Each structure stands twice: as structure tokens, then as C-alpha cells.
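Self-study notes.
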Amino acid sequence: MSKLNRDILFLIFEEFLNDSRSLFSCLIVNRLWCETAIPILWRNPWRYEISYNNESLFYDIVSYLTDDIKEFLTEQGIKLPSTSHKSFLFDYLSYCGSINISIINTIISRSTKIITSYTQFLLQQEIYKVLIKKCLELKCLDIISIKHQIFYFPEANTRLNLLCELTCSTSIDPSYFYGLSRICQKIQRLIIINTIPKANHGIVKLIEVQKNLKYFEWEDDFDEIFFIDPYEDIFMALTKRADTLNHLKVIFQFIDDYEHTFLQKVLPELHNLRTLKIDDLTLSNESSLKKLFYRDLEIFKIDYIEIQTATCIVENSGGYLRKILLKYCSYDNFNEDSLVLIRTIYKNCPLIEDLSLVFSSSVDHFIEFEKLLLTCKQLKSLLLIKNSIVDDNDQMSNEDKFSDGEELLKILIRSAPNNLREIRFFDNFKISLESLGSFLEGWRGRPSLSILTSDPVYEGENYINLVKKYKDDGVIKDFRREI
């Protein structure tokens, strides 16, 4: 390791980007390791789980304030940590490519004794100014709790012009986004937290001026039902960026079916999507949705979606789907629709890795399921949901319920691909102690398996003892119940 050059060390350390303990430990090995790790740590220093009661990060930032600014803040009653004029070994902020306003405000409030909101405002302003000035390659900006018009600061035009990622809130005044729109036109990732029940036309403008918007994320975060539509103008603006937009992730809250008609206008326009995630919303069998063509789609996740609609989207995809994670719903003809879905997946998704399936316990369903396992060799995670309504599960005997589970496990032993690492059994698949033991013994010699279930029966003592035995043998990596 001592002979590794700087470039090799840099590549190795980047693998520890999410492991702050290992990355911090590199600082004390030797000077070369320290010099290599510092730029990685300071690329986004706000991401690490450190105690903001510790004043070291605040001390580093305050050290960049000029003497006249420190004197001004002191005169306003703000007690700053004493800093020496001795220069740092590194120009830390020059490596920083991210500003997170919420975390910076937390650091300020915990590291100083500020009496009034006015003095807090003053200190925040000076900290933001020095960050805008010194962060030479600013890429990511989180302004959810912003109160300062940073686009008027010195160097703002130069820094914000390079911005690639913006996280913001709909509670920010529209005029703020108008100001950003003058400068920030190269945003690739836009993440919006929707906190107020009205449209924000400043965000609409910000979307419209982007030249390379690739990722759009929207999350509702409020506590009341509202009757004003905050969605349509913003989501319709996305259609103007359809040529570049690859990833759409949406989490709705308190939205009724009649309110999401805008999606039936928007989704057909976003033809270059690779990721389509929509949570807490039912997509019905609208004819426009059945005609969706996403030739590059890789991740498909929607709550909830009718089986026929899901089948059409899978069939019209380009064969690149890696994740299909859906909560299916069907009001008629469930058995046939679900069979068609399974066939469509194994005919059109050779690269599938994560998959959720809902089906009945018919012979045809088990036959088609085995064909899927034999065809989809890349499958790593499988969620199986048995439809209780169609199977009239309440009238089934325990023997029939366990028989279905036994048949399912036999198919998995015979035909599961070697890459399979996780199986989730939810709702009405029941597995007897004997069948589970036979399955785990048959799995011996393969990679360790994680099993998740929602049934409390597996918390019984006999099941626990059986699972422990195969965990100790390395057959099972994890076995737990999720509600």
C-alpha cells in the first residue's frame, strides 16, 4: 500500500465515499494519504453523520471570514470562535462542491449563542457569502430553508452557473426562482419538496430555462387536504424538457384519481424516461397510459397500477428493464391478466433483476412462473404476492394453503437463477415447517438467501429454531417479518 501512487489511492478512497469512519482514518496515515483524502471529504462535507455540536467544521468556515467581517459580527453581539492567522495546510472550501443551507444553519445555531433572529440572519449571510466565493466548483445546492437571495452575492453568477443539482421547496417565494432562472440553466437534477397547496410559477420558469434537465423528483410533504391544484403547471413544464429528461420520481399525498388527469397528458410526452417511479397514486386503465412507449426504461415502480396498464408499458419497453416494483390492482379478469403479465415479462425483460409479481395458485400460474425463472437469469430479488380475493382464500383449508407454498418452493429449488439473493413472501403464501426445511436444505451450496415475510406464523419457536440452524450454516443471510 505504501507504494501506491496518488491516482490509485484516489480511486480507492472514492470507494469509501459513504464510509466516513474509514475515510477520516486515512487522514492520519501519512501526508500522501491525507492529501488524497481531503478533496474527497470536502467535496460534500455536509453528508457525513458527524455531531454538529462539535465546532470544528464551524471553526474551519469562520476562519475564512475577513477580519473586518469578524469585527462587524462581534459588534453585533455574535461570539465567534477565536481563530489564528496561521494558514491551513489545505484550502478546504476550494474542494467543496456542495452547499446545504439546512445543515449550515444547524451548525450555526449549535455553535454560537445568537440572541436574536436578526443576528442569526447576519451570520448566515456572511457564511453563505464566503461559501459562494470559495466553493470554486459548486455542483449541488440545497436551499430548502433559504432566507437569503444568494444570487446577488459577489461571485454568484460564476458559481451558480455551474450548478448541476438543486433541492428546493415550493414554500420559497416564486421571485426567488425567477432570480435563479437568470443564472442556473445547467441543472441536471431538480428535487422539489411540495409543502404548500398552490402552484409555484417560479419553479415552472426554472424548469423551462433548463438546457439539460435529466432527473426530476417531487415529494408532497404537508398535513392537510387541499383543493387547489399545485401540480399541472409544473408537470406540464416537464414536457418541454422531454428530450433530456431520463428520470421521474414522484411521491404524492392526499391526491384523488380525478386530480391526476395531468399525468395522462404528461407521461406520454416523456418518451426518454429510464426511471418511472410514482408512489401513493393509482394509475387506472386509461387508453393513453396503455400507449406509453419507453424504449430506454430501466426502473418501473408505481403504487398502484392496473395489471393491463402495467403489461402494456412492459411490452412497449425496449428490453432494458431491470426493476419492476409495482403494487398491482385488478377489478375484473385477474387470472388471465396476471398470466399475460408474467408472459410479457419473461418475453420482454431479459435483464430484470428486481421483480414484484401477483398471481393465483392455478397450475397455469405456476407453469408460467417457472418459465420466468428459467428465462430471467439476472433475477436477484423477487416479491411474490398471492391474490387472496380471486383465490377465495378465507374458504381454503390450511392444507391447500400450505400446498401452494410447497409447490412454490419446489419450483424455486428447481429453477431459480443463480443470482437470486432475496425472496419476499407477502399476504397469503403459507409455508409449512417441513416444506421450509426441505427448501433450505435444497438451497445449500448456493449464495446465502434473504427471506422476508408478513406472516406472524414464522415467529413461532419451531420456525425460529429452524432458521437459526440454517443461518449458522450460511444458507440464510436474513429471515425476518415485515408488516
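Second protein, same conventions, sequence then structure:
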Amino acid sequence: MATETANGSEASTDVPVAVNGESDLDELVATADVVLADFHADWCGPCKALEPVVERIAETTEATVAKVDVDENQGLASSYGVRGVPTLVLFADGEQVEQVVGAQPEAQLRELIEGYTE
């Protein structure tokens, strides 16, 4: 499944989308109904453990999954109050609606998303 972005390009929603900067995230949030943003770091063990879960969620839900590397996007992470990784921020209809910190079970993330996609 693909979502057309404001500039006419398509952002795939069945694989996580790498976000580089606030404008990238803002555009994704504006063009997709539900976005799960995974604020992560390469050196973070729980982030690595969560990665296959996030990939499955991207493949099997209506949500668009965004991956935000906090080391490369420190300002963006700070603007969302990210103090620990992984932090997952859920957006629905252009607004931030949920934020959870730490590796979460897949079932819990699916339930969170389904509350906004149904």
C-alpha cells in the first residue's frame, strides 16, 4: 500500500519509512491517517529487539510506520520529549494521540493502533 505525499511522491506504508528531520515527519503525519513514529538508536538493545515488531506492524496494519534515528535527529526527538529509546509516538488525523516508552509487546502496539484505525 502506498500513500501519496504532498510533493507527489509515494511513501510506502508496508515498510517503515526513514524520517530525517521535522519536515519529513510533519509531511508524513499530514498525509497518512495514522502514523506510528519509532524514535530509536542504532546502539540501543531494546530498539533492536523492537525492530522486527515494528516491521510486522508496518506490513500488516493500516498505520504508516516512521523510523526516527534520535542521534541524527536530536532536535526532533527533543521537540517530542523523547528522553529514552525506544519511544513510540502515535499520530492520528494529524495530531499526536499517544506516546509510549520502552519496547512494547506487539499485541499492545496493535491494540493501540487499532483504536485509531477503526
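Instructor comment on the second fold: Residues 2-112 form a domain with the Glutaredoxin fold (CATH 3.40.30.10).
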